[in-house]
Write a structure and sequence with these properties.
Layout: H1 2-29, H2 34-41, H3 48-58, H4 64-76, H5 90-125, H6 130-144, H7 147-161, H8 174-202, H9 206-213, H10 218-230, H11 232-247, H12 249-255, H13 261-271, H14 274-302
Helix pairs in contact: 1-14, 2-3, 5-6, 5-8, 5-11, 6-8, 7-8, 8-10, 8-11, 11-14, 12-13, 13-14
Length: 314
């Protein structure tokens, strides 16, 4: 087990290097000159002398490989420079806004698990029932409605018309309900159907027939055996989508005026605040890597065979 964990930790290094290198290349391929973006945001007149001075200050006059190595070292120290707009350290700005984004992401993840697991389980147990058809309708609507439109619909009906929840901002748990549900509905639709399909497949396996012939209660078979195995693909999918869930807060934060990192990133794009953009790409890549590592460890706990040479043995 320890060797498997060590291999997974070592595998993070090339993935991290590739993600940072890709973001560095994309930023340098952009037609926006970082020096010009900085001077424009600071309302400083553009002259050749000033541009040369700023490029030297930011290290933009050095070869690209030197710039990448220096930026990689700084990112490992969580040093992303200073925002062009606020003139404050980027990491300080991010640390102020990141808790709001994490709160929204984890509350949405909680809703995904809380809703999709029982609905997917019951729709498989009561296949082709009224409840199953209702879950199909819910999945269809959840997968087809865009997040921004769903957010505006919830605001209009539940906030403006019925006055049940606040319209925007962050404060009490009531402020968290609508944005969390908006962010979670798409994943609820996906994982409800995924869990249902996985349970139905497991119900056809021979071990289920053997357990029934031995007289084991149906509740124990469904809860202890089938659900434990059937939920494994869902855990894998959640790990793959946790980074997507974090990145997806951009739209929701903008709709509900949620003071998180995603909204800050949108403002950075409009202001061409390149240090903030680099920080956002770095954090999203780290979240994807960490979430996939956690999922691998959870899968190993569920099925210890995974730790044998990094694959499931027969």
């Amino acid at each position: 087990m320890i060797s498997y964990i060590g291999k997974r930790l070592l595998a993070i290094i090339p993935i991290f290097i590739f993600a940072t290198l890709l973001s560095f290349i994309m930023i340098n391929l952009s037609p926006v000159d970082p020096a010009e973006a900085y001077l424009t945001a600071a309302n400083i007149r553009l002259t050749e002398e000033v541009l040369a001075e700023v490029r030297h200050e930011f290290g933009l006059d050095q070869p690209l490989y030197v710039q990448y190595v220096q930026s990689l070292i700084k990112m490992c120290r969580f040093d992303f420079g200073t925002s062009y707009v606020t003139k404050e350290p980027v990491w300080q700005e991010v640390a102020h806004r990141l808790p709001a984004t994490l709160q929204l992401s984890f509350s949405s993840l909680f809703l995904v698990i809380l809703i999709s697991v029982p609905i997917g389980f019951l729709s498989a147990v009561y296949k082709n029932s009224v409840f199953d058809h209702f879950s199909r309708l819910l999945a269809f609507l959840g997968a087809s409605i865009p997040q921004f439109w769903l957010g505006y619909l919830l605001i209009f009906f539940l906030s403006v018309k019925l006055d049940l929840f606040p319209v925007q901002g962050r404060g009490t748990w009531l402020h968290l309900v609508l944005p969390s549900f908006t962010l979670a509905l798409g994943l609820i639709a996906v994982y409800t159907r995924l869990l249902r399909t996985s349970i139905l497949e497991q119900m056809q396996e021979p071990y289920v027939l053997y357990a029934r012939t031995r007289g084991i209660k149906e509740k124990i078979i469904m809860g202890k055996h089938i659900l434990k195995i059937a939920i494994s693909p869902m855990i894998t999918g959640l790990g793959m989508n946790m980074g997507k869930l974090f990145a997806g807060t951009i739209i929701v934060e903008e709709v509900f005026s949620w003071p998180g990192f995603g909204r800050y990133f949108i403002e950075a794009i409009f202001n061409r605040d390149i240090p903030v953009i680099q920080c956002y790409v770095f954090l999203v890549a780290c979240i994807f890597i960490v979430c996939n590592l956690i999922v691998d460890l959870l899968q190993m706990v569920i099925d210890p065979r995974i730790s044998r040479k990094g694959s499931i043995s027969p």
